[in-house]
Amino acid sequence: MAQVYLDNYAATPIIPEAREAMLPFLESEFGNPSSLHSWGDRAREAVEEARSRVASLINAEPEEIIFTSNGSEANNLAVKGLAGALKKRGEHVVVSAVEHFSVLNPVKTLEKSGFEVTVVPVDPYGTVDLQALEEALRKDTVLVSVMAANGEIGTVEPLAEAASLAAERGIAFHTDAVAAAAFVDIDVKETGITALSLASDLLYGPKGAGALFLRKGTRILPQVEGGVQEGGRRSGTENVPSIVGMGVAAELAASLREERSGRLSAMRDQLIRRMLEEVPHIRLTGHPTERLPWNASFVVDFIEGESMLLFLDQRGIAVSSGSACTSRALKRSHVLDACGVPVESTQGSILFSFGLENRPEDVDAVMEALPPIVERLRQMSPLYAKFLREGGA
Amino acid sequence: MAMYSDVVMDHFTNPRNVGEIEDADGVGEVGNPTCGDMMTFYIKVKDGRLEDVKFKTFGCGAAIAVSSMVSEMAKGKTLEEAMKIGREDVAQELGGLPKQKMHCSNLGADALHKAIEDYLSRQGGKE
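ok -> C-alpha coordinates follow
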Protein backbone atom coordinates (compact mmCIF):
# COMPACT_ATOMS: atom_id res chain seq x y z
CA MET A 1 0.00 0.00 0.00
CA ALA A 2 1.15 3.52 -0.77
CA GLN A 3 2.44 5.53 2.18
CA VAL A 4 1.60 9.13 1.51
CA TYR A 5 2.20 11.52 4.38
CA LEU A 6 0.39 14.83 3.85
CA ASP A 7 0.13 16.06 7.42
CA ASN A 8 3.32 18.09 7.66
CA TYR A 9 1.55 20.85 9.56
CA ALA A 10 1.17 18.37 12.43
CA ALA A 11 4.65 16.88 12.29
CA THR A 12 7.54 16.77 9.86
CA PRO A 13 10.32 14.27 9.34
CA ILE A 14 13.67 15.70 10.49
CA ILE A 15 15.96 16.61 7.61
CA PRO A 16 19.08 14.39 7.60
CA GLU A 17 21.48 17.33 8.07
CA ALA A 18 19.75 18.33 11.30
CA ARG A 19 19.63 14.77 12.59
CA GLU A 20 23.35 14.30 11.91
CA ALA A 21 24.22 17.50 13.72
CA MET A 22 22.15 16.42 16.72
CA LEU A 23 23.65 12.98 17.21
CA PRO A 24 26.79 13.97 19.19
CA PHE A 25 24.54 15.86 21.61
CA LEU A 26 22.48 12.73 22.21
CA GLU A 27 25.67 10.81 22.88
CA SER A 28 29.02 12.07 24.20
CA GLU A 29 28.24 15.80 24.19
CA PHE A 30 25.65 15.74 26.93
CA GLY A 31 27.02 18.72 28.83
CA ASN A 32 24.94 21.49 30.34
CA PRO A 33 25.57 24.83 28.60
CA SER A 34 25.63 26.55 32.00
CA SER A 35 28.54 24.43 33.26
CA LEU A 36 31.98 26.00 33.41
CA HIS A 37 34.00 22.94 32.38
CA SER A 38 34.79 21.84 28.85
CA TRP A 39 31.66 19.66 28.54
CA GLY A 40 29.65 22.77 29.28
CA ASP A 41 31.75 24.86 26.89
CA ARG A 42 31.06 22.54 23.98
CA ALA A 43 27.32 22.45 24.66
CA ARG A 44 27.25 26.26 25.07
CA GLU A 45 29.12 26.79 21.82
CA ALA A 46 26.66 24.55 20.02
CA VAL A 47 23.69 26.47 21.41
CA GLU A 48 25.28 29.80 20.47
CA GLU A 49 25.99 28.61 16.95
CA ALA A 50 22.36 27.54 16.63
CA ARG A 51 21.29 30.94 17.96
CA SER A 52 23.24 32.69 15.18
CA ARG A 53 21.74 30.43 12.56
CA VAL A 54 18.19 30.99 13.76
CA ALA A 55 18.83 34.75 13.93
CA SER A 56 20.08 34.80 10.33
CA LEU A 57 16.82 33.27 9.09
CA ILE A 58 14.94 36.46 9.98
CA ASN A 59 17.85 38.93 9.86
CA ALA A 60 17.96 39.28 13.65
CA GLU A 61 20.95 39.55 15.98
CA PRO A 62 21.90 36.36 17.87
CA GLU A 63 21.23 38.02 21.24
CA GLU A 64 17.67 38.72 20.08
CA ILE A 65 16.84 34.99 20.00
CA ILE A 66 15.36 33.29 23.08
CA PHE A 67 15.11 29.52 22.78
CA THR A 68 11.92 27.90 24.04
CA SER A 69 10.53 24.38 23.90
CA ASN A 70 8.20 24.97 20.98
CA GLY A 71 6.16 27.53 19.09
CA SER A 72 3.35 27.54 21.63
CA GLU A 73 5.76 28.49 24.38
CA ALA A 74 7.20 31.28 22.24
CA ASN A 75 3.69 32.63 21.64
CA ASN A 76 2.83 32.42 25.33
CA LEU A 77 6.03 34.21 26.28
CA ALA A 78 5.41 36.93 23.71
CA VAL A 79 1.77 37.60 24.52
CA LYS A 80 1.83 37.30 28.30
CA GLY A 81 5.41 38.50 28.67
CA LEU A 82 5.09 41.65 26.57
CA ALA A 83 1.60 42.60 27.78
CA GLY A 84 2.71 41.98 31.35
CA ALA A 85 5.79 44.17 30.96
CA LEU A 86 3.76 46.97 29.33
CA LYS A 87 0.77 46.82 31.66
CA LYS A 88 1.53 50.19 33.22
CA ARG A 89 1.31 51.92 29.83
CA GLY A 90 -2.07 50.47 28.97
CA GLU A 91 -4.24 47.40 29.13
CA HIS A 92 -5.48 46.91 25.60
CA VAL A 93 -4.35 44.12 23.27
CA VAL A 94 -5.29 43.52 19.63
CA VAL A 95 -5.16 40.13 17.90
CA SER A 96 -6.54 38.70 14.68
CA ALA A 97 -9.42 36.23 14.68
CA VAL A 98 -7.35 33.50 13.02
CA GLU A 99 -4.48 33.31 15.52
CA HIS A 100 -3.32 29.98 16.87
CA PHE A 101 -4.72 28.86 20.24
CA SER A 102 -1.31 29.52 21.77
CA VAL A 103 -1.98 33.22 21.11
CA LEU A 104 -5.75 33.24 21.67
CA ASN A 105 -5.72 31.38 24.96
CA PRO A 106 -2.98 33.54 26.56
CA VAL A 107 -5.01 36.55 25.42
CA LYS A 108 -8.02 35.11 27.28
CA THR A 109 -5.82 34.87 30.36
CA LEU A 110 -4.87 38.53 29.93
CA GLU A 111 -8.56 39.38 29.72
CA LYS A 112 -9.15 37.72 33.08
CA SER A 113 -6.39 39.82 34.60
CA GLY A 114 -8.01 43.06 33.46
CA PHE A 115 -6.83 43.59 29.88
CA GLU A 116 -9.26 44.56 27.18
CA VAL A 117 -8.95 42.63 23.94
CA THR A 118 -10.03 43.53 20.42
CA VAL A 119 -10.23 40.70 17.91
CA VAL A 120 -9.75 41.92 14.35
CA PRO A 121 -11.82 40.12 11.70
CA VAL A 122 -10.55 38.55 8.48
CA ASP A 123 -12.07 38.50 4.99
CA PRO A 124 -13.42 35.25 3.46
CA TYR A 125 -9.87 34.35 2.36
CA GLY A 126 -8.63 34.66 5.93
CA THR A 127 -6.70 37.87 5.26
CA VAL A 128 -6.62 40.23 8.21
CA ASP A 129 -8.69 43.36 7.67
CA LEU A 130 -6.03 46.08 7.90
CA GLN A 131 -8.57 48.88 8.14
CA ALA A 132 -10.25 47.17 11.08
CA LEU A 133 -6.81 46.64 12.60
CA GLU A 134 -5.99 50.31 12.29
CA GLU A 135 -9.33 51.31 13.79
CA ALA A 136 -8.77 48.93 16.69
CA LEU A 137 -5.57 50.67 17.79
CA ARG A 138 -6.03 52.99 20.76
CA LYS A 139 -3.93 55.17 23.01
CA ASP A 140 -3.83 52.40 25.60
CA THR A 141 -3.04 49.60 23.13
CA VAL A 142 0.23 48.00 24.18
CA LEU A 143 0.42 44.90 22.01
CA VAL A 144 -0.73 43.72 18.57
CA SER A 145 -0.36 40.09 17.52
CA VAL A 146 -0.98 39.09 13.91
CA MET A 147 0.36 35.86 12.50
CA ALA A 148 2.63 35.79 9.45
CA ALA A 149 0.62 33.01 7.83
CA ASN A 150 -2.13 30.68 8.90
CA GLY A 151 -1.22 27.00 8.75
CA GLU A 152 -4.78 25.75 8.67
CA ILE A 153 -5.87 27.58 5.53
CA GLY A 154 -2.48 28.66 4.18
CA THR A 155 -3.21 32.37 3.92
CA VAL A 156 -0.13 34.58 4.10
CA GLU A 157 -1.02 37.72 6.03
CA PRO A 158 -0.03 41.30 5.13
CA LEU A 159 2.65 41.24 7.79
CA ALA A 160 4.67 44.31 6.80
CA GLU A 161 1.55 46.50 6.64
CA ALA A 162 0.19 45.20 9.94
CA ALA A 163 3.57 45.63 11.65
CA SER A 164 3.98 49.21 10.45
CA LEU A 165 0.51 50.20 11.70
CA ALA A 166 1.69 49.21 15.17
CA ALA A 167 5.24 50.56 14.79
CA GLU A 168 4.00 54.01 13.67
CA ARG A 169 2.16 54.29 16.97
CA GLY A 170 4.94 52.86 19.11
CA ILE A 171 2.91 49.74 19.90
CA ALA A 172 4.70 46.41 20.38
CA PHE A 173 4.01 44.03 17.51
CA HIS A 174 4.27 40.26 17.77
CA THR A 175 3.90 37.80 14.93
CA ASP A 176 3.46 34.06 15.13
CA ALA A 177 5.65 32.96 12.22
CA VAL A 178 5.56 29.26 13.12
CA ALA A 179 3.68 28.21 9.98
CA ALA A 180 5.32 30.79 7.74
CA ALA A 181 9.00 30.88 8.62
CA ALA A 182 10.27 28.12 6.34
CA PHE A 183 8.74 29.79 3.29
CA VAL A 184 7.98 33.45 3.88
CA ASP A 185 11.02 35.72 3.81
CA ILE A 186 10.76 37.87 6.93
CA ASP A 187 13.25 40.60 7.78
CA VAL A 188 12.68 41.79 11.34
CA LYS A 189 14.89 44.84 10.83
CA GLU A 190 12.96 46.05 7.83
CA THR A 191 9.48 45.38 9.21
CA GLY A 192 10.02 46.76 12.71
CA ILE A 193 8.57 43.67 14.38
CA THR A 194 9.03 43.56 18.17
CA ALA A 195 8.71 39.81 18.64
CA LEU A 196 8.38 36.76 16.39
CA SER A 197 7.71 33.11 17.21
CA LEU A 198 9.35 30.14 15.50
CA ALA A 199 9.09 26.37 15.87
CA SER A 200 11.83 23.94 14.90
CA ASP A 201 9.57 21.23 13.49
CA LEU A 202 7.94 23.57 10.97
CA LEU A 203 11.46 24.31 9.72
CA TYR A 204 11.94 20.54 9.24
CA GLY A 205 14.04 20.32 12.39
CA PRO A 206 13.26 18.18 15.44
CA LYS A 207 10.39 18.73 17.86
CA GLY A 208 11.21 20.16 21.27
CA ALA A 209 12.71 23.49 20.22
CA GLY A 210 11.20 26.85 19.40
CA ALA A 211 12.39 30.41 19.57
CA LEU A 212 11.18 33.90 20.23
CA PHE A 213 12.87 36.77 18.51
CA LEU A 214 12.72 39.74 20.86
CA ARG A 215 13.99 43.09 19.63
CA LYS A 216 16.99 44.38 21.54
CA GLY A 217 16.02 46.53 24.51
CA THR A 218 12.47 45.17 24.77
CA ARG A 219 11.35 44.28 28.27
CA ILE A 220 9.51 41.00 28.76
CA LEU A 221 8.22 39.15 31.79
CA PRO A 222 9.59 35.60 31.84
CA GLN A 223 6.97 32.87 31.93
CA VAL A 224 9.33 30.16 33.12
CA GLU A 225 11.32 31.43 36.09
CA GLY A 226 14.40 29.85 37.56
CA GLY A 227 18.02 30.16 36.58
CA VAL A 228 19.53 32.70 34.23
CA GLN A 229 19.41 30.70 31.02
CA GLU A 230 18.49 32.75 27.93
CA GLY A 231 19.38 35.94 29.75
CA GLY A 232 16.91 35.12 32.51
CA ARG A 233 14.04 35.43 30.06
CA ARG A 234 13.47 31.70 29.82
CA SER A 235 14.87 29.55 32.57
CA GLY A 236 15.55 25.84 32.44
CA THR A 237 18.33 23.68 31.05
CA GLU A 238 18.44 24.01 27.28
CA ASN A 239 17.31 21.13 25.06
CA VAL A 240 20.70 21.13 23.37
CA PRO A 241 20.10 18.40 20.74
CA SER A 242 16.85 19.96 19.52
CA ILE A 243 18.29 23.46 19.55
CA VAL A 244 21.26 22.27 17.48
CA GLY A 245 18.88 20.57 15.04
CA MET A 246 16.77 23.70 14.85
CA GLY A 247 19.82 25.77 13.99
CA VAL A 248 20.77 23.56 11.07
CA ALA A 249 17.15 23.44 9.90
CA ALA A 250 16.89 27.24 10.05
CA GLU A 251 20.05 27.70 8.02
CA LEU A 252 18.81 25.32 5.33
CA ALA A 253 15.36 26.90 5.37
CA ALA A 254 16.99 30.20 4.41
CA SER A 255 19.33 28.84 1.74
CA LEU A 256 16.83 26.44 0.15
CA ARG A 257 13.70 28.55 0.48
CA GLU A 258 13.25 29.24 -3.20
CA GLU A 259 13.93 25.73 -4.43
CA ARG A 260 11.62 24.24 -1.79
CA SER A 261 8.88 26.77 -2.45
CA GLY A 262 8.89 26.00 -6.15
CA ARG A 263 8.75 22.27 -5.63
CA LEU A 264 6.03 22.29 -2.98
CA SER A 265 3.83 24.90 -4.59
CA ALA A 266 3.84 22.94 -7.87
CA MET A 267 2.40 19.93 -6.02
CA ARG A 268 0.00 22.15 -4.08
CA ASP A 269 -1.29 23.79 -7.26
CA GLN A 270 -1.72 20.47 -8.99
CA LEU A 271 -3.73 19.08 -6.07
CA ILE A 272 -5.89 22.20 -5.82
CA ARG A 273 -6.58 22.21 -9.55
CA ARG A 274 -7.49 18.53 -9.65
CA MET A 275 -9.58 18.64 -6.48
CA LEU A 276 -11.66 21.53 -7.78
CA GLU A 277 -12.06 19.82 -11.16
CA GLU A 278 -12.66 16.27 -10.07
CA VAL A 279 -14.59 16.51 -6.80
CA PRO A 280 -17.97 18.24 -7.03
CA HIS A 281 -19.30 20.49 -4.24
CA ILE A 282 -16.02 21.45 -2.65
CA ARG A 283 -14.34 24.80 -1.99
CA LEU A 284 -10.77 25.87 -1.48
CA THR A 285 -10.30 27.56 1.89
CA GLY A 286 -7.82 30.36 2.40
CA HIS A 287 -6.36 32.72 -0.16
CA PRO A 288 -6.07 31.46 -3.76
CA THR A 289 -2.66 33.06 -4.39
CA GLU A 290 -1.27 34.58 -1.16
CA ARG A 291 -0.77 31.11 0.18
CA LEU A 292 1.86 28.96 1.88
CA PRO A 293 3.50 26.64 -0.68
CA TRP A 294 2.63 23.54 1.33
CA ASN A 295 -1.03 24.16 2.14
CA ALA A 296 -4.01 22.80 0.19
CA SER A 297 -7.14 23.05 2.34
CA PHE A 298 -10.74 22.47 1.37
CA VAL A 299 -14.22 22.04 2.68
CA VAL A 300 -16.17 19.15 1.16
CA ASP A 301 -19.93 19.53 1.37
CA PHE A 302 -22.36 16.95 2.81
CA ILE A 303 -19.75 14.81 4.57
CA GLU A 304 -17.60 15.04 7.65
CA GLY A 305 -13.81 15.39 7.86
CA GLU A 306 -12.93 12.64 10.31
CA SER A 307 -14.65 10.02 8.14
CA MET A 308 -12.63 11.14 5.12
CA LEU A 309 -9.46 11.13 7.21
CA LEU A 310 -10.08 7.58 8.49
CA PHE A 311 -10.84 6.18 5.04
CA LEU A 312 -7.76 7.90 3.59
CA ASP A 313 -5.68 6.46 6.43
CA GLN A 314 -6.87 2.99 5.44
CA ARG A 315 -5.47 3.75 1.99
CA GLY A 316 -2.14 4.81 3.48
CA ILE A 317 -2.72 8.53 3.13
CA ALA A 318 -2.33 10.83 6.16
CA VAL A 319 -4.20 14.16 6.26
CA SER A 320 -5.92 16.29 8.90
CA SER A 321 -9.22 18.08 9.34
CA GLY A 322 -10.61 21.07 11.19
CA SER A 323 -14.03 19.52 11.74
CA ALA A 324 -15.57 19.56 15.20
CA CYS A 325 -15.50 15.77 15.36
CA THR A 326 -11.77 15.66 14.70
CA SER A 327 -10.91 18.08 17.48
CA ARG A 328 -10.67 16.69 20.96
CA ALA A 329 -12.56 19.70 22.22
CA LEU A 330 -15.35 18.92 19.71
CA LYS A 331 -15.25 22.49 18.47
CA ARG A 332 -15.15 23.36 14.83
CA SER A 333 -12.25 25.34 13.48
CA HIS A 334 -12.31 28.95 14.66
CA VAL A 335 -10.30 29.83 11.56
CA LEU A 336 -12.93 28.56 9.11
CA ASP A 337 -15.56 30.19 11.28
CA ALA A 338 -13.75 33.54 11.07
CA CYS A 339 -13.62 33.17 7.27
CA GLY A 340 -17.40 32.86 7.24
CA VAL A 341 -17.46 29.26 6.03
CA PRO A 342 -20.99 27.94 6.78
CA VAL A 343 -21.22 25.76 9.88
CA GLU A 344 -22.20 22.57 8.06
CA SER A 345 -19.38 23.00 5.53
CA THR A 346 -16.71 23.38 8.21
CA GLN A 347 -17.52 19.81 9.22
CA GLY A 348 -16.19 18.70 5.83
CA SER A 349 -12.81 20.35 6.36
CA ILE A 350 -9.78 18.55 4.98
CA LEU A 351 -6.18 19.76 5.05
CA PHE A 352 -3.32 18.45 2.95
CA SER A 353 0.04 19.76 4.13
CA PHE A 354 2.95 18.91 1.86
CA GLY A 355 6.50 18.44 3.09
CA LEU A 356 9.97 18.03 1.69
CA GLU A 357 9.57 14.30 1.17
CA ASN A 358 6.45 14.46 -0.97
CA ARG A 359 6.62 13.65 -4.66
CA PRO A 360 4.28 14.65 -7.50
CA GLU A 361 2.92 11.07 -7.57
CA ASP A 362 1.48 11.69 -4.11
CA VAL A 363 -1.07 14.00 -5.72
CA ASP A 364 -2.06 11.14 -8.06
CA ALA A 365 -2.44 8.82 -5.07
CA VAL A 366 -4.80 11.30 -3.37
CA MET A 367 -6.81 11.83 -6.51
CA GLU A 368 -7.17 8.10 -6.97
CA ALA A 369 -8.25 7.45 -3.37
CA LEU A 370 -10.33 10.44 -2.40
CA PRO A 371 -13.14 10.80 -4.99
CA PRO A 372 -14.55 7.29 -4.32
CA ILE A 373 -14.35 7.96 -0.57
CA VAL A 374 -16.26 11.22 -0.96
CA GLU A 375 -18.84 9.51 -3.13
CA ARG A 376 -19.24 6.65 -0.67
CA LEU A 377 -19.71 8.97 2.30
CA ARG A 378 -22.17 11.08 0.32
CA GLN A 379 -24.21 7.98 -0.47
CA MET A 380 -24.42 7.51 3.29
CA SER A 381 -25.23 11.14 4.04
CA PRO A 382 -28.76 12.34 4.79
CA LEU A 383 -27.62 15.87 3.88
CA TYR A 384 -26.63 14.77 0.40
CA ALA A 385 -29.92 12.87 -0.02
CA LYS A 386 -31.78 16.04 0.97
CA PHE A 387 -29.72 18.10 -1.44
CA LEU A 388 -30.53 15.72 -4.30
CA ARG A 389 -34.24 15.63 -3.39
CA GLU A 390 -34.35 19.38 -3.45
CA GLY A 391 -33.13 19.35 -7.00
CA GLY A 392 -29.39 19.82 -6.56
CA ALA A 393 -27.10 18.39 -9.18
CA MET B 1 -6.61 4.13 14.01
CA ALA B 2 -5.96 3.33 17.62
CA MET B 3 -8.56 5.79 18.86
CA TYR B 4 -11.31 3.33 17.88
CA SER B 5 -11.82 -0.34 18.71
CA ASP B 6 -11.62 -2.99 15.99
CA VAL B 7 -15.40 -3.41 16.12
CA VAL B 8 -15.92 0.32 15.55
CA MET B 9 -13.47 0.30 12.64
CA ASP B 10 -15.20 -2.75 11.15
CA HIS B 11 -18.63 -1.11 11.31
CA PHE B 12 -17.23 2.17 10.04
CA THR B 13 -15.43 0.53 7.13
CA ASN B 14 -18.29 -1.82 6.21
CA PRO B 15 -21.43 -0.27 7.63
CA ARG B 16 -24.46 -2.57 7.65
CA ASN B 17 -27.90 -1.47 6.46
CA VAL B 18 -27.00 1.86 4.87
CA GLY B 19 -29.79 3.37 2.82
CA GLU B 20 -33.33 4.62 2.90
CA ILE B 21 -36.62 2.67 2.88
CA GLU B 22 -38.96 4.23 0.32
CA ASP B 23 -42.19 3.09 2.01
CA ALA B 24 -40.88 3.14 5.58
CA ASP B 25 -43.37 2.60 8.37
CA GLY B 26 -41.47 5.02 10.56
CA VAL B 27 -38.67 7.58 10.18
CA GLY B 28 -36.55 9.11 12.95
CA GLU B 29 -34.02 11.89 12.66
CA VAL B 30 -31.60 13.20 15.28
CA GLY B 31 -28.76 15.68 15.42
CA ASN B 32 -27.92 18.43 13.01
CA PRO B 33 -24.92 19.33 10.90
CA THR B 34 -23.99 22.12 13.31
CA CYS B 35 -23.21 19.74 16.14
CA GLY B 36 -21.36 17.50 13.75
CA ASP B 37 -23.51 14.42 13.50
CA MET B 38 -26.88 13.73 11.95
CA MET B 39 -28.65 10.39 11.65
CA THR B 40 -31.86 9.32 9.94
CA PHE B 41 -33.33 5.88 10.65
CA TYR B 42 -35.97 4.13 8.54
CA ILE B 43 -37.93 1.13 9.83
CA LYS B 44 -40.27 -1.45 8.37
CA VAL B 45 -42.54 -3.18 10.90
CA LYS B 46 -44.25 -6.57 10.54
CA ASP B 47 -46.19 -8.39 13.27
CA GLY B 48 -44.79 -6.08 15.92
CA ARG B 49 -41.18 -6.71 14.90
CA LEU B 50 -38.59 -4.63 13.07
CA GLU B 51 -38.50 -6.43 9.75
CA ASP B 52 -36.03 -3.98 8.24
CA VAL B 53 -33.90 -1.10 9.52
CA LYS B 54 -31.89 1.26 7.37
CA PHE B 55 -30.05 4.49 8.06
CA LYS B 56 -28.24 7.44 6.59
CA THR B 57 -25.62 9.22 8.66
CA PHE B 58 -23.57 12.40 8.36
CA GLY B 59 -20.76 12.35 10.83
CA CYS B 60 -17.50 11.00 12.13
CA GLY B 61 -16.29 7.42 12.23
CA ALA B 62 -18.03 6.81 15.55
CA ALA B 63 -21.35 8.17 14.27
CA ILE B 64 -21.30 5.84 11.27
CA ALA B 65 -20.26 2.81 13.36
CA VAL B 66 -22.95 3.57 15.96
CA SER B 67 -25.64 3.77 13.29
CA SER B 68 -24.53 0.51 11.74
CA MET B 69 -24.43 -1.27 15.11
CA VAL B 70 -27.86 0.05 16.13
CA SER B 71 -29.38 -1.14 12.87
CA GLU B 72 -27.91 -4.58 13.39
CA MET B 73 -28.99 -4.79 17.05
CA ALA B 74 -32.53 -3.67 16.23
CA LYS B 75 -33.28 -5.84 13.23
CA GLY B 76 -35.72 -8.67 14.08
CA LYS B 77 -36.44 -7.32 17.56
CA THR B 78 -39.93 -6.51 18.82
CA LEU B 79 -40.69 -2.82 19.12
CA GLU B 80 -40.61 -3.12 22.86
CA GLU B 81 -37.18 -4.76 22.81
CA ALA B 82 -35.86 -2.19 20.37
CA MET B 83 -37.05 0.67 22.57
CA LYS B 84 -34.86 -0.76 25.33
CA ILE B 85 -31.65 -0.48 23.31
CA GLY B 86 -29.74 2.28 25.08
CA ARG B 87 -26.71 4.35 24.21
CA GLU B 88 -24.59 2.42 26.70
CA ASP B 89 -25.60 -0.91 25.14
CA VAL B 90 -24.51 0.32 21.72
CA ALA B 91 -21.18 1.59 23.01
CA GLN B 92 -20.61 -1.70 24.80
CA GLU B 93 -21.37 -3.77 21.70
CA LEU B 94 -18.87 -1.62 19.81
CA GLY B 95 -16.15 -2.47 22.31
CA GLY B 96 -16.30 1.00 23.78
CA LEU B 97 -16.16 4.52 22.33
CA PRO B 98 -13.69 7.32 23.06
CA LYS B 99 -15.00 9.50 25.88
CA GLN B 100 -15.46 12.58 23.71
CA LYS B 101 -17.57 10.55 21.28
CA MET B 102 -20.04 9.21 23.88
CA HIS B 103 -22.54 12.03 23.46
CA CYS B 104 -22.89 13.67 20.07
CA SER B 105 -21.85 10.63 18.05
CA ASN B 106 -23.78 8.09 20.05
CA LEU B 107 -27.26 9.14 18.96
CA GLY B 108 -28.15 6.06 16.92
CA ALA B 109 -30.42 4.54 19.55
CA ASP B 110 -32.25 7.86 19.89
CA ALA B 111 -32.84 7.97 16.13
CA LEU B 112 -34.14 4.41 16.19
CA HIS B 113 -36.50 5.21 19.07
CA LYS B 114 -37.76 8.24 17.19
CA ALA B 115 -38.48 6.08 14.15
CA ILE B 116 -40.45 3.65 16.34
CA GLU B 117 -42.36 6.52 17.93
CA ASP B 118 -43.10 7.84 14.45
CA TYR B 119 -44.45 4.40 13.51
CA LEU B 120 -46.60 4.24 16.64
CA SER B 121 -48.03 7.69 16.10
CA ARG B 122 -48.86 6.80 12.49
CA GLN B 123 -50.65 3.67 13.80
CA GLY B 124 -52.53 5.82 16.28
CA GLY B 125 -53.63 8.05 13.44
CA LYS B 126 -55.11 5.11 11.57
CA GLU B 127 -57.36 3.96 14.37
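The longest strand of chain A covers residues 295-300.
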